[in-house]
Design goal:
457 residues, alpha/beta, 2-enoyl-CoA Hydratase, Chain A, domain 1, OB fold (Dihydrolipoamide Acetyltransferase, E2P), 6-stranded parallel beta sheet, 5-stranded mixed barrel, 16 helices, 47% helix, elongated
């Protein structure tokens, strides 16, 4: 189909070109931000139910970045944690202090707690809130490696964290004395004790997030730098924030139960690979599990003696198949693994303990698999060779020629024809048995069954 265009005069063409050029420029020019869909306040809400480690710290700092980018009126962290790493805690509190968006930490729901690192994060927030039936505190520092600290080192660590807590509490106009006691004497406080202290440790007691936002609406808070901000949270749009899949996976690996399972599977996989070089799959899976377990051990307060006991127990189970100990080595290995598992995580917190309900099944399964595989390896090592020079010994064949005592001849054995010698007379067609291999010549004799039957050379 053809379209015929008429002639355009210069006067008519100029306005058309200007209009086209304007539309093209407009299409590439930066667009003005759209008007918000609602004038309601924006509140971002994120739940943190994990140990405070680099992964949870990354999530919390990303949430603060997103709140600042969205010009949110408030960011609320619902916190439930048994504690965590001091360095990750310092990273979180530093980002909270520098945030443009006011940050509230809400220890909830009822029955939850924010201990140790969670206590420091709570008192560092612009708004510290707790639900009924919750508690905070017990922030005395412990060694991340699980080893016992000497008195001087322990005092230095406690003094350092106590100074950090006092600084946060003083700047937030919270109870400095209680903040120090939570670190030095590992004291914990209920929501009423924290709210009724003079001055208080927290600002609000609320049953849930909706009640918290209702209480905070219209309140004036003082930021860390001294600025006063009026919160507007009534009828707010609540936008939930969640961890990425990568953060959820890494955070799950840092759980004590998962770390223990990964350590057990990794030890088993590498042991199988060492027994059977070239298996590849057990070595790859075992190495990956151990690397993930060691990542978790960097976060958890791991007792190195526990790791050594588990490894020693695995070694005893392996020796049971080689040494006639009448089960003593196996029993010692099982006891060593159980004891090592019990002290693997060096923390008084129940959330960081590995229960017997997990330790016993894993130990029994690991012991059974190790003993079974060890016996298979020993049986394979004791099996007679079927290839090479060793595989020729005791093979049965037939004489293809007559043998004079000490003379040469030929035999058919192992599907091949060989030159042979014999120390006895052997007739053509007789059965022979290989007793030695000298280069390409066999030494044969009549089979033992023939000799026992009464035939002699």
């Amino acid at each position: 189909m053809q379209v015929r265009l008429g002639r355009l005069t210069a006067g008519r063409l100029a306005p058309l070109l200007i209009a086209l050029l304007s539309s093209a420029v407009a299409s590439f020019a930066p667009q003005a931000p759209e008007a918000p869909a609602s004038d309601r306040p924006l509140v971002l809400a994120a739940e943190v139910e994990a140990i405070i480690h680099p992964v949870s710290a990354e999530f919390m700092m990303q949430a603060i970045d997103r709140a600042d980018a969205a010009n949110a009126d408030l960011l609320v962290f619902t916190l439930r944690t048994p504690g965590g790493l001091v360095e990750s805690t310092r990273s979180i509190t530093s980002r909270m202090i520098s945030a443009e968006t006011p940050v509230a930490v809400f220890v909830a729901p009822s029955g939850a707690r924010a201990a140790s690192a969670g206590f420091l994060i709570t008192i560092a927030a612009d708004v510290a809130a707790m639900a009924p039936g919750t508690h905070i505190g017990a922030a005395h520092p412990v060694s991340g490696g699980g080893q016992q600290l000497d008195e001087t080192t322990a005092e230095k660590a406690a003094s350092d964290v106590a100074a950090f807590a006092r600084s946060l509490a003083a700047q937030r106009n919270r109870n400095v004395e209680l903040a120090e006691l939570a670190v030095i004497e590992s004291q914990a406080f209920t929501e009423n004790e924290a709210a009724e202290a003079d001055p208080p440790l927290i600002d609000v007691i609320a049953a849930d997030l909706d009640e918290l936002l209702a209480v905070l609406d219209g309140q004036t808070i003082t930021r860390f730098d001294g600025r006063e901000v009026v919160l507007h949270t009534a009828d707010a749009r609540i936008e939930p924030l969640q961890m990425t899949w990568r953060q959820r996976v890494l955070s799950g690996i840092a759980r004590p139960e998962v770390a223990y399972l990964l350590f057990s599977l990794g030890t088993l996989g590498l042991t199988i690979e060492l027994w059977n070089p070239g298996g590849i799959l057990p070595g790859v899976v075992g190495g990956l599990c151990l690397l993930l377990a060691f990542f978790a051990f960097q976060v958890l307060p791991v007792n190195l003696a526990g790791v050594a006991l588990v490894g020693f127990g695995v070694g005893l189970l392996a020796l049971e198949a080689f040494v006639a100990s009448f089960g003593l080595l196996a029993a010692g290995g099982i006891v060593s693994i159980v004891l090592g598992s019990l002290i693997l995580i060096d923390s008084p917190l129940p959330e960081l303990q590995i229960g017997l309900s997990l330790i016993l099944p894993v130990t029994i399964a690991l012991s059974a698999i190790m003993l079974f595989l060890t016996r298979l390896v020993v049986a394979a090592q004791r099996r007679r060779a079927v290839t090479g020079r060793s595989g020729m010994i005791d093979e049965i064949g037939h004489a293809l020629s007559d043998f004079a005592p000490g003379g040469p001849g030929r035999v058919a054995t192992h599907g091949e024809i060989w030159a042979a010698t014999a120390a006895e007379s052997i007739a053509e067609g007789d059965e022979v048995q290989v007793v030695a291999v000298n280069g390409l010549t066999l030494t044969v004799r009549r089979p033992a069954s023939v000799l026992q039957g009464g035939e002699h050379p």
